[in-house]
Amino acid sequence: MWRIKTEIYVQALVRRVNADCVGVIARRGDTDAGGIYVRVNRLDGRSGLLVAFTDMNGERRWRVLASHLTPDGEIDDMLTREIARDPDMWVVEIEDKQGRHFLEEAVEGDWQS
């Protein structure tokens, strides 16, 4: 299956987010195949975290690592651990008071609580 480069996917996501709110690349990873994490910052001391993965059919999907109601410090700690484990990963930060992630692919897990 043909896969789009990670850098191009991340740039497209940031453009889509910036149509409604603020999205930035907070950390650059491997341009071809780096892992992608999306942090949604509600700007009230709470954030959420999602990670991309490839399912058994070769499709990109997302897994909730922490709901959008998680204290910022917990998200910071999670990202620090993930970066230590995978220095080639990307982090996209979305600033949205409503806690929207703007991802078009399927999301597994509980984002709302």
Can you tell me about this structure?
It is a single chain. With 113 residues, the protein is of the alpha/beta class. The chain contains two helices and six strands. Strands 1-5-2-3-4-6 form a six-stranded mixed β-sheet. The radius of gyration is 13 Å and the shape is globular. The N and C termini lie far apart (35 Å).
Tell me the layout of helices and strands.
Blueprint: H1 6-18, E1 22-27, E2 36-41, E3 46-54, E4 60-71, H2 72-85, E5 90-95, E6 107-108
Parallel strand pairs: 2-5, 4-6
Antiparallel strand pairs: 1-5, 2-3, 3-4
Strand content bin: 35-45%
> What is the N-to-C succession of helices and strands?
HEEEEHEE
Tally the helices: 2
Helical content band: 10-25%
Number of domains: 1
Number of extended strands:
6
Largest sheet: 6 strands, mixed
Mean pLDDT: 94
Provide the gyration radius in Å. 13 Å
CATH homologous superfamily placement: Protein of unknown function (DUF1491)
**Overall spatial form:** globular
Side-by-side strand order of the widest sheet: 1-5-2-3-4-6
pLDDT < 50 stretches:
none
